[in-house]
Amino acid sequence: MEEQFAKLDIRKEENIVYKKTDLLVDRALSYCPGCGHGTAHRMLMEVLDEMDIQDKTIGVSPVGCSVLAYDFMNIDMLGAAHGRAPALATAIKRMWPDRFVFTYQGDGDLAAIGTAETIHACNRGENFVIIFINNGIYGMTGGQMAPTTLPNMRSSTSPYGRDVATMGHPLRMTELVAQLPGTYYVTRQAVHTPNHVRKTKKALRKAFENQKLNNGISFVEVVSNCNSGWKMTPVNSNKWMEDNMFPFYPLGDIKVDGKLVEKAEVTKKE
Amino acid sequence: MGELRLMKGNEAVAEAAIRAGCDGYFGYPITPQSEIMEYLMMEKPFERTGMVVLQAESEVASINMLYGGAGTGKMVMTSSSSPGISLMQEGISYMAGAELPCLLVNIVRGGPGLGTIQPSQADYFQSVKGGGHGDYKMIVLAPASVQEMSDFAKLGFELAFKYRTPVMILSDGAIGQMMEKVELFDPVPRRTEEELIRQCPWAATGKPKNRDHIIITSLDLDPAGQERVNLKLQAKYKVMEENEVRYELINCDDAEYLFIAFGLSARICQKSMDLARAKGIKVGLLRPISLFPFPVNPVATIAKKVKGILVVEMNAGQMIEDVRLSAGCSVKIEHYGRFGGIIPTPEEVVKALEQKIIGG
Amino acid sequence: MAKIKGDIVINVERCKGCEVCIAACPFTVIAMAKEVNGKGYRYAIKVNDECTGCTNCAIVCPDAVITVYRAKVTAE
Question: What's the ipTM?
Answer without folding.
Answer: 0.94
